[in-house]
Amino acid sequence: MFETPRISFNMAQKDSANETISTCQRRSRTKFTPDQLKILIDTFNQKPYPGYATKQKLALEINTEESRIQIWFQNRRARHSFQRTEPEQALESSQTHRPDAPAVTQVREARRCRTTYTSSQLCALIKAFKKNPYPGIDSRERLAKEIGVSEARVQIWFQNRRSRFYDQRKREPAEIRGKIRDKAQGL
DNA sequence: CATCTAACCTATTCAAGGC
DNA sequence: GCCTTGAATAGGTTAGATG
After folding, report:
1. Is residue A157 within 8 Å of A135, Cβ to Cβ?
2. Nearest nucleotide relative to A157: CA against C1'
3. Any residues with CB less than 8 A from the CB of A158 and at least 6 apart, and which?
4. What is the largest CA-CA distance in chain A?
């Protein structure tokens, strides 16, 4: 409707003047082949909310990183309207409350297992975050290799971290901030 | 240039595991 | 039971490719 008067983002690509590296901040754009797209779309039409197993299978099938598939489904859901079938209903009824309806079990596929970071891994992540909360693809991959996790996990970790601990531009910090700050400075 | 869409973002919610 | 936080979501932005 109306343009945002000012965009408050600056994406943290500022210090590229200093960085001589800085080939590119984001990962290079993936080009899916028609065959890959066909399989992706086909799967999407069947289940727009695939679980981890399905995404892994897809990744193998079309020889693409699972994180790319995740992103593809995110984008697809955002831009295309899709059939809302059983998964959606299961999604809604699953945690609101399940009085006595085990009828539609196993509709929702399991998500990826929760990663547990060691204290040294967390230490490295937090250190990197303090240096730059918006690492580009190169930094993320370097860090991922350093601590022995996938780059996708690193990216998610930074997203969560920024959302919860970094952005102080929220309205009223109040006492919640104090608690979080303690945690954030923990390491 | 316009269009499409991968990559990326924030904000919020789901949920596993620890206390 | 509640808290922390990784995973997933909705919805929006940025930017590379292509006509």
Report:
1. no
2. C6
3. A125, A129, A133, A134, A135, A140
4. 61
Report yes or no: A134 and A157 within 8 Å, Cβ to Cβ. no
Residue A164 CA to C16 C1' — how many Å? 31
Distance A163 CA to B11 C1' (A): 7
Nucleotide nearest to A51 (CA to C1'): C8
pLDDT in tens, A3-62: 323 233 334 333 333 333 344 689 999 999 999 999 999 999 999 999 999 999 999 999
Q: At A12, phi and psi to the nearest 5?
A: 60, 30
At residue A170's C-alpha, the angle toward residues A177 and A96, to 5°, is 80
